[in-house]
Amino acid sequence: MRLKIGICDDDADQRNYLAERVRIWAGGKRHLIEMEQYPGAKEFLFSYEESKDFDILLLDIEMPGVGGIELAKRVRSENTAVQIVFITGYYEYFSDGFDVSALHYLIKPVDEAKLYPVLDRAVHNLSCRQRCVLLATGEADVKVPLTDILYVEAENVYVNVHALLKSYRVRMSLGKFTEQLDETFFKAHRSYVVSLKHISKITRKEITMTNGDVIPLSRGVYHEIHTALIRYL
């Protein structure tokens, strides 16, 4: 697979270390990579304005000026596909990653045993992004990438498919529609199937999605969805 990877870290030694690990991983997997390194968010954003085709970003969270979280928010606001991996020395930032659908956090010092599976999952997600569902809305047939779907809601003989940019209404049962989805989706309630990718917060009674919508959680499935979410992350 051909990949464009960006590494943004104010520590030159850390950048070079990560770059070397990524090259070794790519060589072993036979991926063709284009890799760029940046000492800070300012330099990255200047380059990003010229070319926004990154597939994977490895971002240090604690950088002078604009940090990794804020940088990721700017990128995510216009790019739903890029796989974002945060590099940090502290666990306290983990909850911030929900806002930008971060793929993973890696705690410094980063080693190959933890980095390589994350990169493998990033490639898997990028491949899955090519998977779409075809929605017959009545007005037209619309192709929607699975990774753009936040959740699906059953309503009588219809399902409402809530995606990043808009919602679609399709005459189909929830069970039949779910057959088109993959393991990144979870049935949270008899009337709702949610994307693990787009969950912002979960409690024992409800789920908050990244767009702010609140979904009811069926009694007794909290531990199951919690486990699924951890496995996904």
Task: Walk me through the structure.
The protein has 233 residues and is α/β, with parallel strands linked by helices. It has six helices and 15 strands. The chain has a five-stranded parallel beta sheet with strand order 2-1-3-4-5, with helices on both faces. A five-stranded antiparallel beta sheet has the order 10-9-8-12-11. The chain has a three-stranded antiparallel beta sheet with strand order 13-14-15, with no helix packed on it. The longest helix has 18 residues. It is globular. The model has no long low-confidence stretch (mean pLDDT 89).
Summarize the helix and strand pattern as letters.
EHEHEHEEHEEEEEHEEEEEH
Biggest sheet, open or closed, and with what strands and sense?
5 strands, parallel
Mean pLDDT over the residues: 89
Helix-strand makeup class: alpha/beta
How many β-strand stretches? 15
Which outline best applies?
globular
Helical content (DSSP H or I, runs of 4+):
25-40%
Helix tally equals 6
Strands of the biggest beta sheet: in what spatial order?
2-1-3-4-5
The value of Rg in angstroms is 19 Å
Oligomeric state of the chains in view: single chain
Strand percentage lies at 25-35%
**N- to C-terminal distance:** 23 Å
